[in-house]
Recover the amino acids of this structure.
């Protein structure tokens, strides 16, 4: 690393933002990244001698600190085939450079072996505003430039992660040697990616690396062109140690006492709604209304200021206008409050950036963690805590949801209520001036009341911190993310190919996946995943079997399984025979297993029970068809019973159902949901999509 | 065409399934498809002379009726650069051929100009089992072989359709000259595609054409290799003239009388359910119960056989076991019945193919059109006709739905009832032994009670007939198709590149789009499109504007608009100023227009009214956020009123809404739907998806 250190120091000292090609090559050498044989010539004769050593054909490139875009300056000649061409090429490049810039300083002309053949790929690194250093990999040429077939990972990365990148592009097959071509060395490519990751990890002042093209054959890979951009060291993001976050968040989610700053007895005021929700929600800790003009509010003694409260205060909910927040927050800080729930709007979201900076500073100075500002508050059902101006919510369950937007928070609440979704927490994060998703993940990770986390987010303050937290949590419980702003590609000043390719959403998508997060494509998907994932046991393998009374549903369920990345089990003969024993001769075994439409409950029971007991099957997708022989509620009660009986016997598998029929199927779905079986009416897509989400998590958690 | 006729006749007479390269080239010449300069050499000397005339380098290829795969036989040499190489190449190919097949007959060796450079594309044609002759276009190499980036159209096709194919591949940009390459001549490529389409249209005995590769530059395109496969003339599908279909279908959908064969007074029997549904559904025509053992059923005189009915019978509903169907159908045919509604199962779907063929023959002989067998029946609400064993349905409206599967039919019924979706018809087509989607489209096209058609289908009996019918209908009303079995790629014996690429679903997808059909990705989407499309007026242009109270919804709605292929209007300055006048200073004009969360009804009213009146805006997407200042029902009533007032003034635009809030938003959505505004709770995706579907139709119908 000493060579690289030296080169960077020199270049930075000279105020440069780019390294020269020879500098780039020396860095590559230090990091074991192969580059073509080459040398620097300072005369035409030397150029010829070098070319003869390297072997023709060669490439000639000007080396000058004054020329960034060598091609534009006429400073590149490709494919020179003999001594004569090299000699005259030398003079030509010098003439072109002088014409381009009469003041040009030329260090010499690089003579490089012309590498070609094999597969042309691009390997690079870029500094992402959210995630910091990331590496990129794609196939060169049209595939990456027109089809944007490129994949990203956080840097540094392991060799296994790098190998995974090779399979993560759409045209992955090409590298394996499609169309009779020789395959590229996967090991050589993965090693090169890993080393680029190590380089930018070691030297944060490297802002972009572009190895483009890299030629990869069966025996190795060579970076034919190296481009390295440098800049200032990025600011380190301040991190609070995990144990400290946990202590803070635990006081916020399980407070012994809550003060309401701006508590009011007057209906319609936010400070009144918060008081009512705390009391009516059943919170059993102490509640301290704070209001300089009242002596008691809703039967509780009121205090002029939080300073006057004669007890410890864990949480202060702010229900006062933005202008009054700073002094009240100072008092809360002095009081030793752990969490400031900053409901008021009127901060950064309305352009009041200074006001927000001021309260962030006050909170930080006192070690107060602040949620918001500009939020609806938060719910934590295990403590019956509704610290919000919305309506109380009391259906306890095991999913924690967070939202960056108040509107989305209200949608979460409405959806929860109408589907009776059990939640552990609903949290608004608003402007995220302090507490963000990382902090919440750290709490939910160890919270036994939470078995899944679903987060709506528009951006991440600290992408790397999020990924670290998510990776830890995902090992134990699913993390679902709805990332809004998918299609608003961030405008980005691109100094390299890699930079131009790193559109916001593709980076988010790859890196969230790398973190093991289940990304929801839309709001409703996030809500359904949140509702269903905690109800489904973790599958023990990839074999999914469809059992359907409606052949038509079977076809659509198969489509949905393929879309969701599920594996329709190839049913072995003995199992096929076993299923056939229960279904009419014109039914179809195989997969889907079509038990046909007119069958009695016993046919559903026998086939579903077989599916649950045979250990080779790992998940069931049921297609129900409303008939008078097996009416909807008969089906629902039967399936709930069979699933429970088998779970009691240790046959614990996810079961999802699609119900096709008249409106009674809605009640049947509600019954099934209440009994732990995920079921939806009038859709073959949703039950399979949520099963697919469960599988995505189980794979990411290494459970499959 | 005489040359082609002659070549084909000769090859078919010889029992061949493939044409030789020179034959292929002569056909290309006749159709104006450029091929490289070439000639046939029967000696090494002649080969050298030809090569010198054409110019080096050349390609040499064996011409032999005994050798199909020339490369395998060592019969191809590429890039021969001089006379010596050509002379020795000649002998080498002959030696290889003899080694490959000692009995080989060699007609000579083709000497061909080596064409290269420009863009490599593939143009072909194949005989699809559903759609008949189709043409294919894709970029050569990795793009088409690994990424399957290829597009299909029915053959023959117009020049405009062919031009459209060039833009319909993912890598379309490449042809326009991405990465500094010279563009391909669009006209030359489109002409070549058009001519391949004409060729297979003119000569149905040509089963596959493969021009691969075609080299295309700025000045033209040359098919470097031509491969033509031939076979037997495909059977012409029998078609009933449109006027006749219309007459038949009109008697079926608007019957003056219905006979129920197998009518029963006994609850639980299908023949009883059908009788009850006809009577309780309110059908006002004559009903004739047919039952040899009864004198009257449900108060109506019963007849021993349909032959005994002393009146004309338009429709006979069959509610008897499969075994009894043939004689009863004979009687119905003799009686002059127009439609046989064949509810019974036990035909092809259970393997009883002969039984099905028998009833098809009987129906055809008598000119009876048969729906089914293996169906739930059909509904036509304008006539209060519920000819089904399911429950009656009476919410009249303007969408006609059909399903191939009974289960899906039941899902249609349940969904319709729970959403109060107004329908004109629900029709089961089951085994489609006779009446299929084409017949139904022909009726719905001219049916003033139907303004949109939604069809679930697993296959098409006559893809070309369907496309013709759909193209006609789509000009007046949307046709929505849920094609099940998307992901079950049909196994296909591939005799050419084009053949191997023509996977079932991609062909369906391209050709349904070409027909102007709106394809629904899943069951629930089909149902929602069916429910919403008739409620939305047709947009007059592409400019979509989002007005939202929740910034968070605005971001998600923008994502959804991009996903749905909608254009977020670039708001002109004066319009931006006009919106700004109504919203708080910290709100955001632009698009989405974020009116911010705490606004009163007047802000929604002012901005929505402006959106409806300004003629540059063509559709509105609303994002509502539940607040106490503007509660859900206040919002709903307000928007319904404003939309109606503006429609009355002639400002008729589609308006869709996403409501985020507590459960009251569900009632608000119901109210909005009842008042012609498409609105969904807890989802930002659905309202935009249905607007996107409306746009897809409007574009296909040429209305934009």
């Amino acid at each position: 690393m000493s060579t690289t250190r030296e080169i960077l120091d020199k270049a930075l000292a000279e105020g440069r933002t780019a390294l020269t090609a020879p500098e780039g090559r020396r860095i590559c050498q230090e990091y074991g990244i192969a580059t073509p044989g080459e040398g620097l010539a300072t005369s035409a004769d030397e150029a010829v001698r070098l070319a003869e050593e390297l072997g023709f054909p060669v490439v000639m490139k000007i080396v000058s600190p004054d020329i960034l875009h060598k091609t534009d300056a006429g400073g590149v000649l490709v494919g020179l085939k003999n001594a004569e061409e090299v000699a005259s090429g030398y003079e030509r490049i010098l003439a072109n450079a002088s014409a381009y810039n009469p003041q040009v300083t030329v260090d010499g002309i690089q003579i490089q072996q012309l590498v070609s053949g094999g597969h042309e790929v691009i390997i690079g690194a870029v500094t992402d505003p959210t995630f910091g250093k990331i590496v990129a990999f794609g196939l060169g040429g049209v595939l990456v430039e027109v089809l944007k077939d490129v994949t990203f990972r956080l840097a540094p990365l392991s060799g296994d992660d790098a190998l995974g990148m090779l399979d993560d592009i759409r045209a992955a097959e090409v590298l394996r040697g499609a169309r009779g071509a020789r395959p590229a060395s996967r090991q050589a490519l993965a090693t090169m990616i890993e080393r680029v990751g190590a380089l930018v990890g070691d030297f944060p002042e490297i802002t972009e690396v572009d190895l483009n093209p890299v030629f990869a054959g069966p025996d190795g890979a060579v970076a034919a062109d190296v481009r390295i951009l440098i800049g200032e060291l990025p600011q380190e993001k301040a991190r609070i140690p995990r144990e400290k976050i946990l202590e803070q968040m635990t006081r916020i989610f399980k407070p012994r006492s809550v003060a309401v700053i701006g508590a009011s007895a007057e209906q319609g005021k936010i400070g009144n709604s918060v008081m009512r929700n705390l009391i009516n929600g059943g919170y059993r800790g102490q509640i301290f209304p704070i209001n300089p003009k009242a002596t008691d509010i809703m039967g509780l003694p009121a205090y002029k200021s939080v300073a006057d409260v004669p007890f410890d205060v864990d949480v202060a909910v702010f229900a006062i206008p933005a202008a009054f927040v700073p002094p009240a927050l100072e008092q809360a800080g002095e009081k030793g409050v752990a969490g400031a729930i900053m409901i008021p709007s009127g901060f950064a979201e309305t352009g009041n950036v200074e006001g927000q900076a001021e309260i962030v500073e006050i909170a930080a100075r006192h070690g107060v963690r602040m949620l918001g500002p500009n939020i609806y508050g938060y719910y934590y059902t295990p403590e019956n805590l509704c610290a919000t101006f919305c309506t109380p919510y009391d259906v306890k369950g095991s999913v924690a949801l967070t939202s960056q937007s108040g509107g989305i928070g209200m949608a979460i609440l409405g959806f929860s209520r109408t589907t009776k979704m059990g939640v552990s927490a609903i949290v608004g994060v608003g402007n995220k001036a302090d507490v963000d998703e990382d902090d919440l993940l750290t709490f939910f990770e160890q919270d036994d009341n939470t078995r899944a986390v679903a987060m709506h987010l528009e951006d991440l303050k600290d992408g790397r911190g999020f990924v670290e937290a998510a990776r830890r949590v995902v090992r134990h419980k699913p993390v679902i993310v709805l990332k809004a702003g998918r299609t608003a590609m961030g405008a980005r000043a691109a100094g390299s190919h890699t930079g131009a390719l790193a559109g916001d959403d593709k980076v988010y998508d790859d890196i969230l996946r790398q973190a093991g997060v289940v990304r929801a494509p839309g709001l409703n998907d996030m809500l359904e995943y949140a509702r269903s994932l905690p109800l489904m046991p973790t599958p023990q393998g990839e074999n999914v079997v469809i059992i359907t009374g409606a052949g038509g549903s079977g076809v659509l369920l198969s489509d949905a399984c393929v879309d969701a990345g599920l594996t329709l089990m190839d049913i072995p003969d003995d199992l096929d025979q076993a299923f056939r024993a229960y279904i009419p001769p014109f039914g179809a075994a195989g997969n889907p297993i079509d038990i046909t439409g007119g069958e009695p409950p016993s046919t559903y029971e026998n086939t579903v029970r077989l599916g649950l007991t045979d250990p080779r099957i790992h998940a069931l997708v049921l297609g129900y068809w409303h008939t008078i022989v097996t009416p909807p509620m008969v089906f629902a009660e039967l399936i709930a019973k069979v699933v429970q009986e088998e779970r009691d016997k240790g046959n614990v598998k996810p079961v999802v159902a699609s119900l096709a029929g008249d409106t009674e199927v809605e009640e049947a779905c509600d019954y099934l949901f209440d009994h732990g079986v995920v079921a939806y009416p009038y859709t073959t897509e949703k039950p399979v999509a949520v099963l697919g989400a469960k599988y995505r998590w189980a794979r990411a958690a290494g459970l499959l």
Remarks:
- Chain B touches chain A through 80 residues (CB under 8 Å).
- Residues 489-494 of chain B have pLDDT under 50 and may be disordered.
- The radius of gyration of chain B is 31 Å.
